[in-house]
Amino acid sequence: MEWEDTKSWSESFDEFMSQFDDLFLRSESREKAKLYVRGLLADVERKNAWQLAEVLNLDSPHPLQRLVNEGKWDEDRVQKRKRQVVNKRLSAAGVIVIDESGFVKKGTKSAGVARQYCGRVGKVENCQVGVYLVYASPTASVFLDRRLYLPKVWCEDAQRRQEAAIPSQIEFRTKPELAQDMLDEVWAEGSTAHYVTGDSLYGNSPGLRNFIDRSHHSYVMAIGSQHRVFYQGSRQALKTIAQAIPSTDWEKIAFTLTETGWIWYEWTACRIEMANDEIGEQWLLIRRRLGEQQEFDFFLSNAPPDSAFTDLVAVALMRHQIEQSFEEAKEQLGLADYEVRTWHGWHRHMTLCFLAHTWLTLMSMNERQKKATSALDELQSG
Fold first, then answer.
1. Residue 208 lies in a domain
2. What's the Rg (C-alpha) of the chain?
3. Contact 45, 32 (CB under 8 A)
4. Is residue 53 part of a domain?
5. Cα 132 to chain center, whole Å?
6. For the chain, which has fewer Cβ within 10 Å, the N-terminal or C-terminal residue?
7. Containing structural domain, residue 208
8. pLDDT tens digits, residue range 325-364?
9. Per-residue pLDDT tens for 250-298?
10. SS3 for 193?
11. CA angle at 165 for the pair 161 and 168, rounded to the nearest 5°
């Protein structure tokens, strides 16, 4: 990168971070927050406090550790301000994606740590699990919010709660309920994203589906194949419905582009009713994998009956955008490299990582816009 570009990026970073200055009551916390985010953006193999301190030329990691453990600032207010910043830049065409991510941890002291399924390693592990909202569009993806999942065993253990500084008002919430809490807050702030998508953990939740529908928003979420639904006058298994659909009713749609070419699936849709929610007739989208063995994936949507089939498929596929966001945040920004045990420490580290990720996303959007403008100017001048 040329020096002028470096200067421009540095000025952009300072301008971005200055939008949060008033939320850090002490100048020390304000400056250390900027340093922490700069360290997350640096080229460091592991972004724990010790290595961040080294790359930032600090004598010790203690100032950074104090920032996330003891500093006087409200991480939720910073997160809310960040959403206000990105809402001004992002189009209404985006989709809110719900997902979770696990972080393998040793010991029993870190807030919420327990033996539970960890998607990162694909098995049950001793880990913490967070539930996340991400705004996703074809051009940009940014984290909107996060909640640490607190298993029941933690909620009922007063001593562990005290040691991990878990606020007294925090009660047990299922992962779909945590997603509902975050959606409620994001929409109350004026987010214009209309659609929600997520995997079957969230699509299987009638409470979450009903909440989204009552909020006058739409979802396209995966559901498990075990459901039996009302279709053409009788209650049928999803696989039975899929197998009975005529071959002429399937449409071939590209899933994604890889180094070896496009990945294709066949899609179809029909109108069904679920037995366990209040919504009534809604869309069932079915994805069939190409090949000799018929394998199906199912998606449920409360979108209006006249919704374009391809639009619903596009929303369903947007769910995979969150995988790229997690990869960027974990591989480049140290999302999983934290060394904190407390409730606030976890949420604060996530918030600071989200600031780094959002700044990178906005800079990338600016660069693409500059290139597009330059190309258009060149085309017009030619």
1. yes
2. 23
3. no
4. yes
5. 4
6. C
7. 202-318
8. 898 899 999 999 888 999 999 999 999 999 999 999 988 8
9. 999 876 666 677 778 899 999 999 989 989 999 999 999 877 678 899 9
10. coil
11. 65
Burial class, 23, CB count within 10 angstroms (exposed 0-12 / middle 13-18 / buried 19+): middle
- Between CA 179 and CA 185, with CA 182 as vertex, the angle to 5 degrees is 150
Tokens 């699990």 belong to 129
Beta strand segments in the chain, E: 95-104, 114-118, 123-136, 141-148, 195-198, 218-223, 228-231, 234-237, 251-258, 261-273, 281-289, 296-301
107 and 188 fall within a common domain: yes
- How far is it, in rounded angstroms, from Cα 284 to Cα 143? 28
Residues contacting residue 23 through CB under 8 Å, at least 6 positions apart? 73, 74, 77, 78, 81
pLDDT at residue 2, as a whole number: 39
Based on the structure, what is the number of domains in the chain? 2
- Tokens (6 digits) for 140: 């940009």
On whether both 173 and 225 belong to a single domain, the answer is no
pLDDT in tens, 186-242: 999 988 899 999 999 999 999 999 999 999 999 999 999 999 999 999 999 999 999
Q: What is the structure's pLDDT at 212?
A: 98
Rounded distance between C-alpha atoms, residue 76 and residue 381, angstroms: 49
